[in-house]
Amino acid sequence: MTMENKRLQEMDWLKLALKDGIIDVAYVQAYYEMNKRKEQLEQHKYHIWCGEDGKWRTYLPDSERGRKLLKRKTQKDIEDAVAKFYREQDENAVTSFRNMYYRWRSVQDRLVCDNTITKYDTEYKRYFENAAFADKDIASITEEHIKVFICETVKNKKLCKKACKTLFGYVSRVMESARINHIIADNPMEYMKAKDFYKYCTEIKRPVGDRIITDEDMEKLYGQFRDDYARKPSYIPTYAVEFASLTGMRVAEISALRWANIKDSYILVDASEKYNRKTQEYYIDSTKNGKERIFPVTKEIQNLLERIKKVQLQYGFICEWVFADKNGRIHAPVISSCSKNKCRQIGISDKGIHAYRRTVNSKMRCGGVSATVAAALLGHSTDVNNQYYTFDTSGLDEKMRIVESVNKKMPIAN
Length: 414
What we know:
The protein is mainly alpha-helical. The protein contains 17 helices and nine strands.
């Protein structure tokens, strides 16, 4: 096994151990420091020896004399001094924000999954790669420097609030890491908050009709479903899109659904499809929030599931997965693509599976269902439900009836 493969194996073990609670972040930090010390000693080119007097000696590089003698009482003392020498050299040479960012990453990458590492790489290129700010000595960076950098980046790149918060988070974590590692004495971001920069953000306001599916468009979509079933009954992604319209489940949850999860009166939602961007492989993991939930099986859902099973039996590709064809389980991107294609076929703007999710939730909320119940059915928090999934789905006729009922209760003026 090569040294690189061994390190990768160690990183995988650390991630697993962290996930299972076997070790904590403090252990990982200590593990990192131990490996860093080992690297520092390995770069020392001079021999370390014990003299006849029992003292340990070695040479250290010296800019004036070429080298200088170092003497300590024990082997540990001499190795500590050597490691400290190279650590201070590294710190003196690596105090730019850019290099401190990578120092923070050297630990952080051991704590997260491959997809998060890929996300870090992508967002670094977006925010820091060509920024003069990244080349500044971190010890010279002031609160004003950070404010200007974040403000200009938000404006120039037209960042939304979410992206602004992400950018703020990276700068904050790197500055805090520099403070923890004694590169800087105080964190200039101590009294700063991401929301201080929200007023500079660009918010794209999409019409409600682009966020949900209206009753009129839903009628058209169901007409398209019927045409597709008649023309190509074995095409399973269409059934998955219809399933999304009835349940509001996440596309990754739909892709990961097993027949074993279909009970007489409910569906157990306990898994989600994930994609490893590094290995380019799909795998099944827990749901997005890591919790199981149940979703009731209505007559409409039962009818759809029976149709799916009938088709799979007829064409010979029945298996453990609800949404599978002759090639195996249908992956989430295929279902999302199918959803958008259905929209193109009926002449409306492209809508992914999340549009059905927002629509199902909004119809429940407009029908009087509480945020707590709706959130429990869809598998997110009440705050998320209120902020991102609740829209007015009522048409003009329904609004007219509501206002008329209010007006009828008013006193007569003439």
